[in-house]
Design brief:
The protein is an alpha+beta fold and 204 residues long. It contains 6 helices and 8 strands. The termini are far apart.
Length: 204
């Protein structure tokens, strides 16, 4: 679909229900793997090796896109069963920040420093509604593999968000449910509210 977009950032979560821990595996968007491709009329042309991020674009920007990307990730991990998916649009970034206030991150590399000196490598920066999207989305398209440097910033954002969300969840038992409701307008997922709360509890 012309307006489906691509999977800009991909993460596979491994949830240990016994130990109640979550391990996050990052998947670079330019990873080459087998994806299902389709023609202009929606007819499947079968599998072809391509960038994993493009798998999302062959869908509808909703559940079909998520299922295609889920299949591509499973293919990449040798047929690993995946029990659920969750896609959040870029518009949801502001909603995330609004749900917790501000975040303090440590800039992991110098990929932003040239254009935005305040994001020097190693600097501690406060993220808010004004600069969070810049931090997680910007990359120099003229630089090879700049998406990998951006991914490091995204991981730092998720680390800081997870830590703050953990603190809020411990203070307020209803925080996870409220967060799910905040994200719902920007989210396509096969994960229900109850499972989302359990995941948050494991992350905490």
């Amino acid at each position: 679909q012309a307006d489906a977009g691509q999977a800009d950032a991909l993460y596979l979560l491994s949830w240990d229900r016994v130990e109640k821990t979550i391990t996050m595996i990052t998947i670079p968007r330019d990873t080459m793997t087998e994806i299902e491709v389709f023609g202009p009329s929606g007819e499947s042309f079968g599998k072809s090796k391509d960038h994993i991020s493009i798998s999302y674009a062959y869908g509808d920007g909703g559940h079909k896109s998520c299922r295609l990307t889920e299949d591509a990730v499973s293919e990449l991990f040798y047929g690993l069963p995946i029990q659920g998916y969750c896609a959040v649009s870029m518009d949801g970034i502001t909603a995330l920040i609004q749900s917790i206030g501000t975040l303090t991150v440590t800039v992991p590399n110098d990929s932003l420093e040239g254009a935005y000196p305040e994001f020097a490598q190693g600097a501690q920066v406060t993220l808010d509604e004004e600069n969070t999207e810049l931090f997680v989305r910007y990359r120099d398209t003229g630089e090879r593999q700049s998406a990998l440097e951006r991914m490091e910033r995204q991981k730092e954002f998720l680390r800081a968000f997870g830590q703050t969300a953990k603190e809020k969840a411990l203070e307020d038992a209803g925080f996870a449910t409220e967060l799910y409701a905040v994200l719902e307008p920007y989210m396509v997922t096969s994960i229900g509210n109850d499972q989302f709360v359990k995941l948050m509890e494991s992350a905490a």
